[in-house]
Amino acid sequence: MPRRKGAPEVNAGSMADIAFLLLIFFLVTTTIETDAGLDRMLPPIEPPEQDVVIKQKNIFTVNINRNGQLLVEDNLMEMKDLRKAATAFLENGADGSCTYCKGKKDPSSSDNPSKAIISLKNDRETKYSTYITVQNELVGAYNDLRNREAQRLYGRDFTKMEAEYLNPETPSSVRDDLKDKVKRIQDMFPQKLSEAETSTD
């Protein structure tokens, strides 16, 4: 009596190749989203050697409540007016030491761009979109002033100069040339944007 043949075997030798090809395919075609954040420089860990005294008039306070309303320097303000108010504060130049400032030199406002600080405080229930919009307006005030001075000194916008300087594909010779220019404009209007502790009430 002839022997019965067993169940046919499946050739699994190529399965590993197929799995490997699928893995490569998904690695190549899949895009990984990266979260965009806010560009902020954190304060140094070391405490300052001496206490720094800041005059109240050199602080521009911006509060956002849970309803998205702005309280700027204890006055209600529309979002569309925020950038103009911040710009006027930053270049006020009350002490007369700022030769490039075009402000009103109001003695009750900031002395100098290097001393001017913008303090932002928001409620815990503030909408994220409102918070980002306020941030954009405040940073926009700095960029407007920096662009103005970069145009005056170098004939081009600061934001474009900075983007080119920070681009890793920019040739080192160009970056070396831009380094001092970017730093000079940054020093003219240093970005001092402080975020106060979030309000919980």
TrEMBL record:
Top-rank taxon, per record: Bacteria
Compartments it resides in: Cell membrane
Membrane topology note: Single-pass membrane protein; Single-pass type II membrane protein
Keywords per UniProt: Cell membrane, Membrane, Protein transport, Transmembrane, Transmembrane helix, Transport
Molecular function per GO: transmembrane transporter activity
A single cellular component GO annotation: plasma membrane
Signal peptide: none
Main location: membrane
GO-annotated biological processes: protein transport
Family: Belongs to the ExbD/TolR family.
Name of the featured protein: Biopolymer transport protein ExbD/TolR
Organism encoding this protein: Allomuricauda ruestringensis (strain DSM 13258 / CIP 107369 / LMG 19739 / B1) (Muricauda ruestringensis)
